[in-house]
Records
---
Amino acid sequence: MQAFIHRLEQISEQSGRAIAWLTLLLVIITFAVVVLRYLFNTGWIALQESITYLHAFIFMLGAAYTLKHEGHVRVDIFYRNMSPQRQGMVDFFGCLLLLIPVCLFITITSWDYVLTSWSLLEGSQEAGGLPFVYLLKSSMLLMTLLLLTQGLAQLLSAFQRWRYPQLSIEVKQHG
């Protein structure tokens, strides 16, 4: 099971590392927009919209990577003082009752929204804007897929820590 968990986590790791490069691109484009506007008194709507697209992609597609590295806000006043076994139980039920249902809810509620956008090949409403709004909206579904993948890895890992704490200690020592 540990190999399966590792493979699932690699998806989050690799996608997160790839998405991180979009941050550099976002900074470069933002710099270009500022230079064009204030030094040359010009600008392009598509370039400005690309900043919004990149920000959305970074946020949504980087969520699973952030979850993997425990970078989300967490209130752990009680959690940090719990045994690893009890933390595993909390993490298991957190994934099962919060993360997975929220991801499924987002998928279900955004499905028609994304399909409609694809059927129209929806583009920007601004003249000169980007013609790829449907791709932007698709990132919502990709976000939930990546989060569900990482959530499954965490669910299985938490189950191991909760139900088989001795196995978790062995994996840490040999892992």
---
Amino acid sequence: MQIQDKLTMPIGVFDSGVGGLTVAREIMRQLPSENVVYFGDTARVPYGSKSKDTIIRFSRQIIRFLKTKEVKAIVIACNTASALALETVQAETDIPVIGVIAPGARAAVKETKNKKIGVVGTEATIRSETYTKVIRSHLPGASVIGKPCPLFVPLVEEGFAKHSITEQVIDIYLADMKNTDIDTMILGCTHYPLLRSKIMAYLGERVHIVNPAYETAMDLKAVLKERQIANTSGTPGTYEFYVSDAAEKFTKFANSILPYDIATTQCINIEEF
């Protein structure tokens, strides 16, 4: 393969559904020449309540699909899959695979002044304590408070991100966290950046909010540069979107948050991979 062909190969990005679009959006903003192939596992969402073995099986299937698109790197744009499957699939895959947890954890460590960090995420992500482990590997003695917020995902997906009902749910979940002295909080689910302004307003200015979607895009940029596989052509990237179900609903949601309109989303049978 010509080196130029390698540079223009796409980045594979996957998530359990639409949340990973916040990561795709940051990749589009920070790496505008990179081509992207996105897969949302909308038939099997949510991942947050499923077992580790199931998440690993799903991740392997999706990676097999993305490799048919000749991707040069893969971003697991899902905190649950990053927590439960990343190490396994990294060991099995011959191209770089990065998750969203390590970049977010490192950014929180850099940001905190008092070593007290909050993490919100799905039940599986919080239960795995992966954020806690990564944070403490960089900052021994850090105090990490995790809080599962399962209703945040359906609120975002049903279009209630700006609704007053979301403010009520934020209050129910985060009232205890608000009364602690954390100075940094990680949005440990890719849907949650769409609630960032409401969470910031609720917690107040003393708490710095870390968006792992942005940090992951910056990590990807560094990996591509290090491997000398970054697309430096200056040509705007192209984007393809695939889902395992409900393509129309996905397209509508994507168009509400991405910087440009996508015309079509293709539906595939992921169980075939």
